[in-house]
Amino acid sequence: MSSPNPADTVTDTTVPLSFQPLSQLSHLVQQQMQQQQQQAQQIQQLYELVQKQMHSQPPAAALDSSASNRTQSPVVKPAKPSTFSGGRKNNARTWLSEMERYLIFMKVPVNEVVPFVVTHFRDAASVWYDNICQQDAYKHDIQNWDTFKQLFLDNFQPGEASRTARSV
User: Which residue blocks in the chain are alpha helix, DSSP H?
Assistant: First the structure.
């Protein structure tokens, strides 16, 4: 019988040959777990950073990613138009002019102009609008801004004030 050849035996005595793949797998699992922990930490840091930025900026600027790249101009908010009651102290033409300036500035869509305007009616003006909407002759036309203005002025602009306004 011949003696075993030393070249044929495994020289690595620390890990038996049969356990080397298991050892590599264990090492890979440990690396994967470390990477996941690092990613979890990064996600937490990003979350905290986003929270901090959201609380330090106004809501509109937080949603606009380019807001930090430009200077912020103040938001212009015009005064809301006054209400109109239809009383003798109200000047219908002046009120209507005020309302039209507001509508233009706020870019109110045409189909929302009349519904918006009548939310500013009080007392006699509100009753007038409710009544005119019930009349078959005006039921549909009243939603047209030009028709609305003419009916409004015909009803609320006193004759004398109308003449004075035309002569100016």
Answer: 20-56, 59-63, 92-106, 110-117, 123-134, 145-156, 159-167
Give tens-digit pLDDT for 9-28. Answer: 545 555 555 566 777 878 88
| pLDDT band at residue 76 using 50, 70 and 90 as cut-offs | confident
Instruction: List 121's β-bridge partners, or say none.
Output: 84
Distance separating alpha carbons of residues 111 and 20, to the nearest angstrom: 78
By residue count, the chain amounts to 168
Exposure string (b/e) for 3-30, b if CB count within 10 Å is 16 or more?
eeeeeeeeeeeeeeeeeeeeeeeeeeee
Are the beta carbons of 113 and 103 closer than 8 angstroms?
A: yes
Distances (CA, A) of 99 to 90, 103, 121, 127, 155: 13, 6, 12, 19, 17
Are the CB atoms for 150 and 111 separated by under 8 Å?
Answer: no
φ, ψ of residue 10 to 5 degrees: the values are -80, 130
DSSP secondary structure letter of residue 121:
B
Please tell me the distance from the alpha carbon of residue 123 to that of residue 7, in angstroms, as a whole number.
110
Q: What is this structure's pTM? A: 0.52
pLDDT at 27: 82
